[in-house]
Amino acid sequence: MKRVTGIGGIFFKAKDAPALQAWYKRHLGIDVQAWGGAAFDWTDADGKPTGGTTAWSIGAEESDQFAPSKASFMVNYRVADLHALIAALKAEGCNVVDKIDDSEYGKFGWVIDPEGNKVELWEPPGGQ
Measured in whole angstroms, how far is the alpha carbon of residue 48 from the centre of its chain? Predict the structure, then answer.
């Protein structure tokens, strides 16, 4: 079974999220949107879209988005078959969050790594 196929997003917290978002926009040219992040569309060597996106965002330090992890970041990994991977992780004794979200953006599940970091697993909708 194929497990992780790529990185779907990188999310981190900041003491002053708006100021840090502005710094990344000004100095690194990241097109930070009102929701606090940017979407990087995947392209081939000629700049043509290839059907994938990597999300990047900065959230408020007080956010509980990464709970139960105390980490200030979370990586979202693209997966081919979320339900099969979650079942395999459970069978292997991993600390899997007992919840799967299914939305217009795809299916999301989570596992806590041995260091206590919350890891997001994302199966994009078909065609992405």
Answer: 23
State the average pLDDT over residues 30-53.
Answer: 91
pLDDT cut 90: percent of the chain above it: 86
pLDDT of 128 > 70? The answer is no
Q: Please give the full DSSP string across the chain, using - where no structure is assigned.
A: ---EEEEEEEEEEETTHHHHHHHHHHHH-----TTSEEEEEEE-TTS-EEEEEEEEEEEETT--TTTT---SEEEEEEES-HHHHHHHHHHTT-EE-S--EEETTEEEEEEE-TTS-EEEEEEPPTT-
Q: What tokens does 50 get?
A: 């290839």
Report residue 75: phi and psi, to 5°: -105, 135
Measured CA to CA, the distance from residue 118 to residue 38 in angstroms comes to 21
To the question of pTM greater than 0.85 for the whole model, the response is yes
